[in-house]
Amino acid sequence: MHPDDEALSGHLDGENDGTTAAHLASCPACRSRLADLAAVAAAVGQPVPPADPSVRQAAVAAALSTALAIPVTPRRRPSRVPTWAFAAAALVLAVAVAVPLLGHIGGRSSRTSSSARSAADRSAVTAVPSDSSAGLAAGGPAAGTADLGSPADQEALRNTLAQALAGRPQFVTPSDAGAAAPKTAAPSAQPATPAPDCLSAAVAAAGAPGDTLGYEATLRWQDQPARVFVFQPAGRSAVAVVVGQADCQVLVTFNV
What we know:
Blueprint (H helix, E strand, L loop, with lengths): L4 H8 L6 H8 L1 H18 L7 H17 L13 H45 L4 H6 L8 E2 L6 H12 L30 H11 L6 E8 L4 E7 L7 E6 L5 E6 L1
Parallel strand pairs: 1-2
Antiparallel strand pairs: 2-3, 3-4, 4-5
Helix pairs in contact: 1-3, 2-3
């Protein structure tokens, strides 16, 4: 087996392991290869002779000519943003922020105005007096009828009616009208005409003529919507009758 170039190079450098030297003694091909490697090593070890000045100058000129022939691209300076562009951007930003705010404020003002108009409309509707007969036919209190709230018991209702009747002109029946003409009371002080069914029930419970009705009001009696009628027959104490507003059922009767 022939040694490779690395083994032959080592032999040239003095690295003799005995095997390569013994092989070279008997192998003309390896000796020739060793001679070639020795010639290369000798050539590499020689100093490089200086170049002829004319040759060196020609080489430098050729290099410069090649370098100058390459076009050089000039560096572009970054473009500056004009000052007016910043002002325009600031204006657009201000508009984008202001429009939603103005819309919100305008919507809130509109809602406030609508609420005020609705409250005024409700007040106007409440202030318009309803027809007396229409209100009674529907089962509700008639126009001008007072509401006494929710008295705790019969005694509390008696005291409330006594205060309501205090200072009111004494009711005069039609039979007494010719003998003693009463003063005409204000329209708001006149008793409202109750629903016919409830008036009939109250008249029967009071034992007094229906034309002696002197006062009427609504209330809640024992958590039930009700109506109280006060009859003022001549020569007798006033009689109060409380009836249910829904069915005209007599709930309680007492003297005031």
